[in-house]
Amino acid sequence: MKFGLFYCILFTLLIAQARISSGQFPRFKILAFYSSTVEPDHVAFATDALKFFRDLTSGNGFVLDTTSNMDDLTLPGLKDYSVVMMLNDFPHSQAQRDAFRKYMENGGGWYGFHVAAYNDKDTRWPWYVDFLGGGVFYRNNWPVLPAKLIVDDLKHPVTKGLPETFISPLNEWYQWKPSPRERKNVKVLVTLSADNYPLGLKDIIPDGDLPVVWTNTDYRMIYLNMGHGAGSFGDATQNKLFIAAFRWVVASDKKGNVFEK
Ligand code: ZN
Fold this sequence. Notes:
Blueprint: H1 2-24, E1 29-33, H2 40-55, E2 63-67, H3 75-78, E3 83-86, H4 94-105, E4 109-113, H5 126-131, E5 136-140, E6 145-151, E7 165-171, E8 174-177, E9 186-192, E10 211-216, E11 220-224, H6 236-251
Parallel strand pairs: 1-2, 1-3, 3-4, 4-11
Antiparallel strand pairs: 5-8, 6-7, 6-9, 9-10, 10-11
């Protein structure tokens, strides 16, 4: 009898657990924007990124919707998405820009790689420059090269558990002027080590501050400098960083941490 009761209780608990679990998944929805008509190396990166993040949906933990149409960037269209990912592009038209700004000002999440933060004298979108920490694209290395990175904060949820330094695979590193680090509302988490200078064979970055991963603390956002060419997802340390950054943006939603529900 005792064993019968034990199994009966165990069975009941398992059923209850299964019911709770089935109500939790998928926990959140992501909308990833990418372009197939930009620089071929940026397309190659997006192809790898889509596979990497799609693999993370295994078990229906979250929904990853993808689009190559930037006109899908509308306020009603983003309503159900916890985070907008920009793999190799950024908003262009005024309507896209207005929708993105409102989405972010209303607590939306943003996870952007590499060229997603690109701006120059022709961009003419001061809000976006400000959103990204005030830096204008200044210079880059060429060809793509690996680089030693320094983890600035080993306690932040994005960088916790990383080594103090690591070698990142091939990338075209973007440097910004002024450095976003100069802004009080920018928290830099990873920086290109000065040990790399001079960095480049054709185009050379000789010196200067080069933040790699940062967040503007006025928004729920994170930017990662990586994103040029295939092979960016072949390094376990860097993959850990990508996933932790992704999880942090999702978890920081003011509506509540979906991982604790
Ligand atoms: Zn690039």
